[in-house]
Amino acid sequence: MKYIKYFVFAFAIFFATVGLVVYSGLYPMGADVPHSKLSYWALEVLRDKSIERSSQDIVVPDLSSPQLLLSGGADYKDMCSSCHLKPGEKNSDMSIGLYPKPPNLTLSGDLHKGNNSENIDEKDAQRQFWIIKHGIKASGMPAWGPTHDDERIWAIVAFLQKLPEIDGDQYQVLTTRGKQAKAHH
Amino acid sequence: MNRNRIMAIGIMTGVLSVAAVEAHDPSKHSAMEEKPDCSFMKDGQSEMVASDDPVQQAMMMKCDHTSTEHMDDSGHEDMGQHSETEDGHDAKTSDHEEHVTR
Question: Is the ipTM here above 0.85?
Answer without folding.
Answer: no
